[in-house]
Amino acid sequence: MKPALNIRLSIASLLRRVLSWRFLKFGIVGASGTVVNLGLLYYAREHLFADVQSPELRLNLALALAIFIATLNNFCWNRAWTWADRKQHYGRPIIVQFGQYMLSCWLSIALQAVFTNLLAVHFYYLMANLIAIAMTSILNFVLNDIWTFGRLKLLRAQPHHHAPSAEQRAKVLNEKP
């Protein structure tokens, strides 16, 4: 296959995944995580860490707690609902899969914290955090769809005597999202 065709197939596959029912479920789970995140961020910044004198440290402590708890919430719901049809991921210990989920989310989490801090200078901190969440959600979905919940595992699990062809890889990547 020509490289330009491979690129078009990859872009088309990405767009299909992003515009899928699975992405909508991921978005619903993400919305629940956003509520958890914003609620805990507010509570932690205004009450739990209220005695911390530095506003930046208070915000970052609250962010760390809010992001971790929201990520745990999202992992549980994504595993149980968004990617429930990918039963092959149940063969691993849940802590291993949670570790994969956390690793695949690290970039989104780091970017969310950076964007929140950058935007908090110009916006109310809760609005800054909401914008940062929206900016990182697509990256988070793609990483989890490919690695944590199995597209790469499906490619590797295909019986073959040689490396899968571009057509075989495209077929797996284009499976019903």
Which spans of ≥5 residues are poorly predicted at pLDDT below 50? none
Q: What letter string, H or E per element, gives the SSE order?
A: HHHHHHH
Radius of gyration using CA atoms only: 19 Å
Task: Please provide the count of β strands.
Answer: 0
What's the end-to-end separation, in Å?
24 Å
State the helicity in percent bands.
over 70%
- Rounded mean pLDDT is 83
Q: What share of residues are in beta strands?
A: under 5%
What structural class do the secondary elements suggest? mainly alpha
Question: Helix and strand layout, with pairings?
Answer:
Elements (H helix, E strand, L loop, with lengths): L2 H16 L2 H28 L6 H28 L11 H27 L4 H24 L2 H7 L8 H8 L4
Helix pairs in contact: 2-3, 2-5, 3-4, 4-5
Overview of this structure, please?
By secondary structure, the protein is mainly α. The protein contains seven helices and no strands. The two termini are 24 Å apart. The mean pLDDT is 83.
Can you give me a brief rundown of this structure?
By secondary structure, the chain is an all-alpha fold. The chain has one domain.
